[in-house]
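Blackboard transcription, Thursday session:
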Amino acid sequence: MGVPGVFTEYARLVEQRLERFVSEQDAPEILKQAMLYSLTAGGKRLRPAILLEFYRVLGGDPADALPAACGIEMVHTYSLIHDDLPCMDNDDLRRGKPACHIAFGEDTALLAGDALLTLAFEVTTRVSSAISPQAVAQAVRLLAGAAGMSGMVGGQVLDLQSEGKQITLEQLQQLQEGKTVALLRAAGQIACALAGADTQLTAAAEEYCVCIGRAFQIRDDILDVIGDTKTLGKPVRSDVQNRKNTYVSLLGVEQSAQLAASLTAQAKAALQTIGNCENLGILADALAGRMQ
Amino acid sequence: MGVPGVFTEYARLVEQRLERFVSEQDAPEILKQAMLYSLTAGGKRLRPAILLEFYRVLGGDPADALPAACGIEMVHTYSLIHDDLPCMDNDDLRRGKPACHIAFGEDTALLAGDALLTLAFEVTTRVSSAISPQAVAQAVRLLAGAAGMSGMVGGQVLDLQSEGKQITLEQLQQLQEGKTVALLRAAGQIACALAGADTQLTAAAEEYCVCIGRAFQIRDDILDVIGDTKTLGKPVRSDVQNRKNTYVSLLGVEQSAQLAASLTAQAKAALQTIGNCENLGILADALAGRMQ
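(Written on the board underneath:)
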């Protein structure tokens, strides 16, 4: 991604801890395998990295917040597993590998998703005792709010309802606020809650997350048109084939790219309020130019 | 059920609050409908009632713990929705009504289950501020532990693995510890955590819950053989038809009934340690003799 080394280090820490959180449980082996299959399938570890970096910038030790970072990544991974199921997007391929339900069967994949969503809340409560129990309860509330019916799941439902229909830009944005933006926003919010940040800093962190979330989705839509299957690890032009409403289908590639650029600039501007956010600024630029 | 009026009152309070928790959210209408469809489909509200009654017996005001009681019922309801899906048990009927996926489609049912599981954790953090944040975090941890890979989801996986195979009584018990007992145990544990009960009281409450959980499952297996479809709201002898391993298939009706009776006695004995548990004693007897 061309991002600062600190994000690579966060990804490494998160991956190690994710593996341990699952492995140490007393549970059927096949379930652990299915959960780890999807958890370790790669991915940018974007949400945990943002959470940990904001927590560090706000004066905390990232190691203290690591379990909450793992929690948000588990929620993200569960959503991918359930999205790929035949009754949803029916995608056989995820990150260049067979989807979880292709590798383990639909029933086990469904349950692996359920187990990851559940474990996410358990591990969020396992942050360091240096963090106040109030902040822990708040983190659980933020994670659930972002993941649930008013956030990610709600966005999925809007997405189902819009299939094969022409929707407006406003409707597309509303749908994406739930599907993609809500969980990214939660990364910033949870970092602030755990660090005990004030409302001004929290608002700035939220704005950064919301803007890069929107830009990220627009870039996704652009890559579906200009990318190639090998780099992306999933079929390109699937949005067109599935007659999905995307930023590109509504605005065209050029205007979409302009919108993404302006959101990236807005994200970087929000960081000024917080200070010491160079890494997050570079991350915003890297995401805007990413090729996968 | 022939249970004390307090349980009817708990059920009423829980049903009102469940409806409010879902209705007040800003979310797609069809998702709310699917969630409420399954939440309001009846059911004994056993887990929340046990949670609230233990909390009361331990000196608390049940109103303070009501959100946590709703949380555990949401987890139970989500598990029924996902269990009924075609890739799982493929049941069209639940409590005498079309299953959620028959009424709303597989995709919406899957998401309604996901949303209920997520909302469960959010509402658990919304107990009264009279309850300490440490206890709230502990309640989240207990709920997740019971619902997840080492509990209910793990039991589901063992159930899938045992389909069409002859298993031992020990394996059946292990499977049921996850599928049924874990969440009932959590009802007692969460009540104790929220009330700040000591380890001796907590152990007694747990023992009661575990014993009635086991007895409940055995009664379920017996009713599948001796019950009728109309009373049960689901097809009888489905276990036999699906070649499921049950207490009846392994022990026969008579020995199963004896085991249930002895577990019920053990549950009531455990209540002696706590005191003032008459209602819970009567509940144990009512469950042992229930016809649905």
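Lecturer's comment: Chain A touches chain B through 52 residues (CB under 8 Å).
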